[in-house]
C-alpha cells in the first residue's frame, strides 16, 4: 500500500503548468470525487436506470397480470368442475333412487308373476284331478253298466222263451216306428 500512495505522492510533485495539480489529501478528495462520480452516474445513468427499472416494472406487472389471468381461469375451471361434480352427484343419486325403485318394482313384478304362476299351476292341478276323477267315475260307471247289462241279458235269455222274445221285439219295433212318425 505504501507503493500506491508513494506513486500518488510522487505525482503530486510534478511540475504543473499553471494551477493544475493533484491533491493527495485522501480525506479532502474522496467526498468531492464521490460526488462527481455520483453526479455523472446520475446524469448519464438515469436514463439507463429508468429503462431498466421500467422494464423490470413492466415484467413484474405482466407477470402479475398473467398470474391473475391464470388464477381467474383456474377459478373458472374449478367452478365448472364443481358444477359438473354437483350435476354428476345429482345424476348418480337419481340413478341410485331410480335403480332402487326399479329393483323394488321388478321384485314386486317377479313376486306377482310367481304368485300368478303358482295359482295357475294350482288351478291346472285341480282341473287335472277333477278330470281324472270324472274319468275314473265314468270308467267305473261303464264297467258297472256293462256288468249290469250282461247280467240282465243273461237273466233275459234264461227267462225268455221264443214267443216272449218275439213279442218283445215286435213291441220295440212298434215303439221305434212311433218315434219315427213323431220326428217326421
Automatic annotation (TrEMBL):
Coiled coil: 64-127
GO CC term, one of those recorded: proton-transporting ATP synthase complex
Subcellular location: Membrane; Plastid, Chloroplast thylakoid membrane
Keyword Iron-sulfur: no
Presence of keyword Hydrolase: no
TM annotation in the entry: 32-49
Membrane topology value: Single-pass membrane protein
InterPro entries given in the database record: ATP_synth_b/b'su_bac/chlpt
Xref: Pfam families: ATP-synt_B
Keywords attached to this entry: ATP synthesis, CF(0), Chloroplast, Coiled coil, Hydrogen ion transport, Ion transport, Membrane, Plastid, Thylakoid, Transmembrane, Transmembrane helix, Transport
Any GO MF annotation of the entry: proton-transporting ATP synthase activity, rotational mechanism
Signal sequence bounds: none
Subunit and partners: F-type ATPases have 2 components, F(1) - the catalytic core - and F(0) - the membrane proton channel. F(1) has five subunits: alpha(3), beta(3), gamma(1), delta(1), epsilon(1). F(0) has four main subunits: a(1), b(1), b'(1) and c(10-14). The alpha and beta chains form an alternating ring which encloses part of the gamma chain. F(1) is attached to F(0) by a central stalk formed by the gamma and epsilon chains, while a peripheral stalk is formed by the delta, b and b' chains.
Record's miscellaneous remark: In plastids the F-type ATPase is also known as CF(1)CF(0).
Family of this protein: Belongs to the ATPase B chain family.
Its biological purpose: Component of the F(0) channel, it forms part of the peripheral stalk, linking F(1) to F(0).
This protein's name: ATP synthase subunit b, chloroplastic
Protein's organism: Hesperocallis undulata
